[in-house]
Each structure stands twice: as structure tokens, then as C-alpha cells.
Amino acid sequence: MTEPRQQALAYVQQHEDDFLAALGELIAIPSISTDPQHRKDVRRAAEWLADRLRALGAQQVVLFEEGVHPLVYGELRAEREDAPTVLIYGHYDVQPAEPLEPWHTPPFQLVRHEDRLYGRGVADMKGQVMAALAAVEAVRAAGQPVHFKFLFEGEEEIGSPGVARVLQAHRDAFAASFCLNPDAGMHDRDMPSITYSLRGLAYFELWIHGPAHDLHSGLYGGAIHNPAQALAEILAGMHDEHGRVTLPGFYDLVRPLSPEERRRLAQVPFDEEAFLEQAGAPALWGEPEYSVYERITARPTLEVNGLLSGFTGEGSKTVIPARAMAKISMRLVADQTPEAAAVSLRRYLEQRVPPTVRWELIEMVGAPPAYVDLDAPQVQALAQALQTVWQREPLYVRSGGTIPIVAELQRIGVPSVLTGFALPDANAHGPNENLHLPTWLKGIRALVHFFYNLENEPWK
Amino acid sequence: MTEPRQQALAYVQQHEDDFLAALGELIAIPSISTDPQHRKDVRRAAEWLADRLRALGAQQVVLFEEGVHPLVYGELRAEREDAPTVLIYGHYDVQPAEPLEPWHTPPFQLVRHEDRLYGRGVADMKGQVMAALAAVEAVRAAGQPVHFKFLFEGEEEIGSPGVARVLQAHRDAFAASFCLNPDAGMHDRDMPSITYSLRGLAYFELWIHGPAHDLHSGLYGGAIHNPAQALAEILAGMHDEHGRVTLPGFYDLVRPLSPEERRRLAQVPFDEEAFLEQAGAPALWGEPEYSVYERITARPTLEVNGLLSGFTGEGSKTVIPARAMAKISMRLVADQTPEAAAVSLRRYLEQRVPPTVRWELIEMVGAPPAYVDLDAPQVQALAQALQTVWQREPLYVRSGGTIPIVAELQRIGVPSVLTGFALPDANAHGPNENLHLPTWLKGIRALVHFFYNLENEPWK
User: Fold this and answer.
1) Are the beta carbons of B400 and A219 separated by less than 8 Å?
2) Who among B275, B304, B325 is closest to A226 (CB)?
3) Is pLDDT of B459 > 70?
């Protein structure tokens, strides 16, 4: 008798058509989360997934309703009680299909043409959800090596407004060894990748108050500190001339990049010229001792997102504004926290704001950075699985953005490891969204390997 | 036979009632320039003044119509052809009388109660116009020592929108040795004053451009210079830590304050505590080597009047703004010019703006500073006149604001000397606006002396 892994891989090969048929059913549901007219379709997709989980044998399937659209939760226990728990994340909502003219096929119908599958959501990310469920089905048929939990949200394309509420309300339900999030794409069909880090966020509104009311600059100018100028002075001091953030203690919690990690990051294809061209800025900028890719993914930043003070209309008004406001945000990296970032900023303001004005800091949203060590068992297991299938070491990728679900899971102690099987030309969010079928099938096989590899990793 | 000066002073004494009756006629015309319903009243006041000038024997009386309301021009030549020409400025428009409840008398009726005259405009500035015309009438009856020109505008209370157009269009008509502007008040009934300097203005809009469009701070943050931050850095560098402006050459044209001038400025009553309280700011600020009064009147300044960039609404948006804007104005002192100030700013920007962003400077309004040397003949003549009547040296006052008519006259080569006979409790713009009758009569006598004193001054 062959070992379960081989049985599961054989199961995948035998059931390709079934997997495609299932994907076709899900693609046919126009679960456009941003469009109130498709509210019922979004729910239909949630229920379709819930049914699918029940069909797989899930003991518990729940639709959590705290958000705008249902969040599907389910659980599939392995026989071995002490196996690790993999929380599989996905979102079943999609972007609108408009504009429709450029589509060569009906967006809400799965169409195969040569080695591509077409349809809204095949890449982002119904195809990824179904790859994960296909792998789960296969390993379940052959012998389930790990516990599975499922978290399928219907709000990703609208910024996950309800996810924090659901996760806080049902914290225990989502407890897991880690989360597998297959919503990250690939750089190339030959370059499987693992995203092991995302930046966090801390967002503030800073107010500088001066006079009790706007003043006439002719009568007061020269003897009253102008709050707009004071704000500029305070903001200007937040970076040194090399683009480093000067807030006291800002970098204290930053986990240094090891030479090994830098070596791996250097392997991630990154075209600095194309980056600059996309930005349309006159030049690159930032910490000179880091590559551009490192600056935007592995280094924390401080940005001024908005400025408002005094007179901003047409023409001229000679006013000394009573106050000035800046929206300020920081992208955070491990092991920074929004709380520590706020302390840094307050310390800076305490030291720096002169007695000629007063300051007020409003702490707005915060999200912790997400990070998984490259030698963590789930990273090792996934890397090995991708290598087995693709016959090459995967890329180890850091992303500079902040994904709400990843941050919220991090907050409740569940680290995420991200991968995915959509190619750069997948046209996610655009017309003719597509999935490269051979890559997708490789992905399913890789996930089968991944689940079995996890069994062998030393879990605490 | 007594000399003309004594005859004129006697004329004033004999015609007090006539002067009051004339003032009463002008006060009765509700020439509220801001209220379209009073448009005809404003014109009526202009025509009343034109008639008055004709009655005085003015050879030329014209209503210039380039502005919103008529500007009354007139000329009264002296016999001696080589006498200096005094351009007498006044505005015949007034503020609305509302709110009416606090008035103890009908606002558009001249009422005498004890030693005060009440009515809208008695202080600001119909009473001052009529004081000047009374003095002109008296010296004309006794022997006119100087040429007179008259410039009575009807737009002062709405910011003199048409004055520049009229002055540019009829530049030659307004040629004069200097302008007497009796729209400045007194610090106290025992403190006659001469305002010999006003600050000018240069107004700019500075744009800092970075990326071609707003960028996602998660994807670009750390490697693109944020224009809002760059703007803050550029603005912050415009002052040193002592509040001095750092633009190259900014102070080059500033006429230094002589010890004598500083001594005189120190005599002007100025309550720093009351100033700070009115501002409502936490502390005073500015160049430490200058008094607060000097800072706001005799020193040039640079103010940020407005800031706008990126996201300024409720909540948070993690954007790197494509651009950032600041409204910047400078108050200028002699012998700075708006043109030189713009050159200073451009030089600073050329030196300071890094290659990671681009800048654009829009030059908006400009007004030259106004300044008359204290030893100029008109200042000497006026000082002597005030001293003769009040038996004390007048205060020599600098004002920090910019008065459009003064700046426009300065631009066509006519310096202004400002005085006036309204007291601090005159309630200009408020209810129960009033004029202290004995001070007003002293003012008329002082102007008589002034005109005769001018005859003796050595004019170039």
C-alpha cells in the first residue's frame, strides 16, 4: 500500500475535472461585495462554501454575521489530536466585472482556453480557495495529517470592515498554529514564492495649536509663532537627511535584517527603474544602506498623508492660522507595534514642540506588522513542498502593505504565511482575469505536499 | 494785517459751526460700500464731496469710475506755482451700522453729546475728511500755501478693489509731493502721532510635486520622497531657530533701524501682555534682538498662510500625496520690494529643494512697503504742527499692516504720511462711533499749521 502522500497526489490527478467543475460553480456566483445589488449573491457564495465544507466532512460550519457580508468558518479535525492546526484563509468576494467590453468570455462563467482558465475571481481568489479545498479533499481521502480550520471572508475587496469584529468576538474559534493565506501571487510560473512578512500600520492626526483664532498677519506677523510653520518645523525634524526616521526609539524594536535574509530578498526580482516609472517621481529616495525593495518592504517608514491649515482657496488671504493639522502614518516592521510607535511619536513631540505652540495627537487605526521566521516549521514545510513540485527554491518575499486579515490574525496570535498560484498577467481586478491551469494544478500538488510535510516538522 | 496762518486759525474758530453742519450733511448719507442696496448712497456721498470741492474752488473735479464705487478726484492750485503738492486722501464709505440696538443715537445723524460727536463714520473717516477740508477751506480763505489734490475713495471698507486700476489709469493726475492720509488714529487725546511706515506684502503659492499621482504608502513608502514631507522640510528651513528668515538676500534691502528711530519707537505705548492675550497664543515668538512692537512693524516676516496636501478628511487614508501646496506671504519693510522678495524665495528654492521633488512658485499679489524718512520735510512740518497744537512731540509710529491705497501710491512714487484725530475709544466699525470734538478741532488747527509749515520746508 502506498503512503498517504502518494495516494493524495493520485487523488488530485484523478479528480482534476471535479475540481474544475467545482471552481466553475463558484465562479458562476457573482459575489461582488461592493455592489449592494449583489448582496444575495455574496451570501450565496458563502453558503456554497459552507456546503462544500460540510461535504468535506467539516464538523462545525458557521456563518459569522458581525460584518457586512458573512464570514464562513469551518473545522476539520485530523485523527491525530496533537497535529498542528492550519487555518486556511480565503475570500470569496470579487471585484465588479466592469468594463465588460474588453472581456473575451462571459466573466461569470469559467471558460477554458488553451492552458488558461478565464472568469472573474479565478485568480483573485476563488481559484486559490478551490486549490486549497482540492488539496484538503485529497489529503482527507488519503489520511488527514493536520487539523484544518477555514476562514472565508466576503469583504476583502471592500477593505475587510467587519473582520476585526468577527475575530475579536470569536477569538478562540480562530486559534491555530498558523494561517495559510494563498492570496499572494507568483513572480513567474517558474518562481513559487512565500510571503513571510507584511508591514503594519500606525495612523495619527497631529494638531498644532497656536493663537486662539486666525490672526491678521500684518498686525501679529513676526511676534507669534505661526502654527503652520511650526507644524512644518516639527514634521521636517521627523526624518534626517538620509530619510531615516528620527523619533526617539523608533527603530528599537526593529528586528535587524540578517545577511541571510538580505541575500534571499536580493533574489526577488525587482525592477527599480520600472518602480520609479510607475511612481512618476523625479528620483528615488530613502535610506541609502538599503535596497529600494528593502526600503518598501523590510524598513519602517513615516509618511505625511495629509496637510491642512489656514487659507487654501483661490487667491490670497494674509492670515496666521490658529491651527495646523497633519495626517501621519507609519508602516511598521517586526517587532514594532502600533503602541510603541505612538510612544515614540509622543516622546518626539514632547522633546521637540516649542512652548510657542501646543500639540494634540489623535491615535487612529493601528495594525501590527506580520512576520514569520524563515526557519519556522510552516515556512520550511511550504518551501520544501514548493521545491518538490517546482524543482527550485522558492522566493522569500516581504510585502510592504498591510492586509487587514493578516494584521488581525497576528493580533490574536496567529501568524500568516502567504503564497499563491496566480501569475503577474492574471489581470486580477481587470478584464479577462485568468489562471494558468498547469500552475494551478502544481499549486494543488504543492499544498498536498505542504500538509504532509507539516506532519514531520517539529511543532512545539 | 496779520499773517495768513493767524487769519486761517481765526477762520477755523469762526466757522466751527459751519464745519459741524457740513460734517452733519455727510454723516447723513449712509454710504455703506459693502451693501448693494446703498450703492446710490455711496454715489451720493461722492457727489456731495465733489460739490464741496467745487465750492472750495477746485479747478478740476472728476469722478473716476474704474472701481466698484466712484473715486473723487480734485485739484486746488496755490498761487505760488513752485509750491509742493499735497495729495489729501480720504474714504467716504463707511461700515454698516448693524447691530442697531446698542446705538444710543441714530447712526446716520450727527449728534453732539457733551464733548463727543456721534454717528457712523465720524471717526472712520468722514470726520477726518472734513477736518482736512476745513483746514483747506481756512488756508484758502487766508492764502493757500501749497497745491492740493484730493483722492476720496468709496471702497476702503471693502478692501479698495478698484484703487490700483484707477491709480494706474490716471497716474499723472495723482502726482504729488506726498500724500496726507488722516486715517490713522491717536493713542490718546494727549498723544498726537505720525505713522511714517507701513509694511508691504508679497504673496506666493508654492507647489511641491512628487509622484505623478497619489501613491499607496504600503507599496511605495520608504523609497519615494513624500511631497508633503518635502514641503515641510522646505518650509521649516525658511526660518532659523531665532525666527529669522533664512532666504538668501532676504534682509539685504532692509533699511537698518537707527538708534534714534528705535528710541522713538520705544516711546509708542505697546502692551506686550495685552498683545499676547489678544492673540491667545501660548507665548511670544520672534527675533530676540527686536522688541515685539518692532517685530510686528519694522521687521519683515515670512508667514505660512495655508497648507494643503493629500487626504484631509475624516479618518485615515494611507496615501503618499502627489503634491503639496503652501500659501506663503511676506510682510516687507523699506527698502524691500515684492520683486526682490520673489527673487530671494526663488534662490532659496533653487538651493534647497532636493532633486527628489519638483517645485513651482506662483507669484500672487505684491505691495511695496511704505516709508517716509523722519527728517523728510512733510514729517518735519507735520511734527512741528502737532507739537504747536498739543505742546508735545508726537509719537512716531510704524504700522505692520499693508494699506492698499498707501501701497499703490507708493508704487506711483507718492509716499504717504499718516495721522488722524480719532481716539482709541472711537468705536470705529462698532456702535456709537464717536469723535472727541476738542481733539477734532485741535486736528483742524494742526492741519492749518501743517500746510503753512510746508511752505517753509526746503522742497527739492
Assistant:
1) yes
2) B304
3) no
Q: CB contact, 8 Å: B324 with chain A?
A: yes
CA-angle at B70, arms to B415 and B55, nearest 5°:
85
Whether residue A211 is found in the same domain as residue A327: yes
**Amino acid letter, B22:** A
For residues B152 and B139, what is the distance between their CA atoms, to the nearest angstrom? 20
Give me the amino acid identity at A25: E
How many domains is chain B built from?
Answer: 2
Rounded to an integer, the average pLDDT of B2-15 is 95
CB contact (8 A) between residue A316 and residue B329: yes
CB contact under 8 A, A296 and B217: no
Say if residue B407 is in the same domain as residue B362.
Answer: no
For the residues of A91-155, what is the DSSP string, one character each?
Answer: E--B------TT-SS-TTS-EEETTEEESTTTTTTHHHHHHHHHHHHHHHHH---SEEEEEEES-
pLDDT for the residue numbered A358: 98
- DSSP character for B451? H
Quote the pLDDT of residue A185: 86
Of the three residues B342, B367, B392, the one that is the final residue of a domain is B367
Contact flag A223-B331 (C-beta cutoff 8 Å): no
Q: Residue B163 is which amino acid?
A: V
Specify whether A151 is located in the same domain as A248: no
Q: Alpha helices, DSSP H only, in A143-212?
A: 163-169
What is the Cβ-side half-sphere exposure of residue A225, based on CA atoms within 13 angstroms?
A: 27
Q: Mean pLDDT per 10-residue run, chain A (460 residues)?
A: 89 98 98 96 98 94 96 96 95 94 96 97 97 98 96 94 92 96 92 95 97 94 97 98 97 96 95 96 97 97 98 92 97 96 98 98 94 94 97 95 92 95 92 96 98 81
* Closest to B399 in 3D by CA, of B419, B375, B422: B419
Q: From the candidates A204, A292, A293, A307, which should be mutated to test the interface with B, based on the most B CB atoms within 10 A?
A: A307
pTM of the model: 0.91
Using an 8 Å CB-CB cutoff, list chain B residues near A281.
210-212, 224-225, 356-357
How far from B230 is each of A226, B309, B353, CA to CA, in Å? 19, 11, 8
User: Are B222 and B179 found together in one domain?
Assistant: no
Q: What is the pLDDT of residue A321?
A: 97
Q: Which amino acid is at A423?
A: L
Q: Which residues constitute the domain of residue B447?
A: 4-198+369-456
Say which CATH number the domain at B251 has: 3.30.70.360
| DSSP type of residue B37 | G
The Cα-based distances of B28 to A338, A425, B107, B124, B150 in angstroms read: 68, 81, 8, 14, 22
DSSP H or E stretch at residue B388: helix B377-390
Q: Which chain B residue lies closest to A220 (C-alpha atoms)?
A: B296
Query: Is residue B275, in this structure, part of any structural domain at all?
Result: no
Binary contact (B306, A319; C-beta < 8 A): yes
Contact call for B295 and A226, based on CB within 8 A = no
Per-residue model confidence (pLDDT) at position A277: 96
- The answer to whether residues B313 and B213 belong to one domain is yes
Residues 343-402, chain B: which have Cβ within 8 Å of A? Answer: 355-358, 364-365, 399-402
Rounded distance between C-alpha atoms, residue B146 and residue B454, angstroms: 7
Domain co-membership, A183 together with A304 = no
Q: How far is CA A33 from the centre of its chain?
A: 18
Q: Is residue B156 part of a domain?
A: yes
State the best of B270, B316, B317 to mutate against chain A, taking most chain A CBs within 10 Å: B316
DSSP lists the bridge partners of residue B219 as none
Helices (H), A321-429: 338-352, 377-390, 404-411
